Every structure is written in C-alpha cells, then in structure tokens.
C-alpha cells in the first residue's frame, strides 16, 4: 500500500466567517483583529468579543464597546452530528441584535447559519461553514469596505399599502389573465 492509501482521512473543520464594519473604522478599532487568516479555537473555549484584552480573544479598540460585548459557544446538537454556535449578549448597557432578534444582557440564541449581528454602530456578517471536527473550530475574519446592511440590500420592513401597487405598475391596469400552459 502506498502512504497515500494509509493516510488518515482529512477531517473538515467548522469555520465561522465574520465580516466586520463600523462607519468610523479608519479610527482603527479593528487593529487587534487578525483579518484574512484562519484562527483555530478549541471547541471547549468560549470566543469572547469586547475591549478587555485580558478576557476577550477578539478585541475591539473602542471605549463604547463593553469589556465583554458578546460571546460565542461552539456545541453539538443533542442526538445529532450538527455543530452550531450559540451567541450570548454579555453587555449590560448595549442590546445585541441578531438578524431581527434583540438580545438583552445574558440573553442567548442559536446563531443562524447566516446572519447580521449589530450593536451600537457595529455590523457583523456571520456565516457558518459546516465541518466535522469536534476538537476545534476556526474563525476567519474579514473587513467590509461598505456597510453590510447596505451591501445586502435588505428589503424594507415597511408595509406597502395596497392602493400604492397601481403606482408601481402604471401600465398594468388589468387583472391577471389565466392562460392554459398548452396554449401558445
């Protein structure tokens, strides 16, 4: 047998991609984050984000950020092979918004596989890339040039009144016409 055949099967690693944006990022609040390089985190370790470099693995150099802003815990769902992250707001002063869910102090939820995390003026796009390793996960941090909420072009949550539909499509004053798929 060749050494290739005897080699252990390569295990994939869950990776949490996080893209950061702040309107004043030229003030270097992200200078302590390691962008564009994957970083391994032990599975039993809680990844903390905040300004206290003695406690937080990911430091945000901004006095408006809490000592510990939020934490991420890697875990495996019960009776499943699926790995997930749980996000917990650790700030007593600032609410954490995960997509449209507002988290107060010590509130936690499962992190959706793709979501936007907001607090203060910070916007973070989080995307989970699934893996198999139980020993560790990876983080891969990126810096956004434009606001994430603007870049994603999220639809407005404002309802459109029924009577304004005719203004959106002025040429269509008729009701829909049903056509049989066999007609040409």
UniProtKB/TrEMBL annotation:
The keyword Metal-binding does not apply. Keywords: Cytoplasm, Immunity, Innate immunity. Its main location: cytoplasm. InterPro entries: FHA_dom (IPR000253), SMAD_FHA_dom_sf (IPR008984), TIFA (IPR033621). GO terms for biological process: innate immune response; positive regulation of canonical NF-kappaB signal transduction. It holds the Pfam family FHA. It is found in: Cytoplasm. Residues 48-120 form the FHA domain. GO terms for cellular component: cytoplasm. Belongs to the TIFA family. This is TRAF-interacting protein with FHA domain-containing protein A. The lineage of its organism: Eukaryota, Metazoa, Chordata, Craniata, Vertebrata.
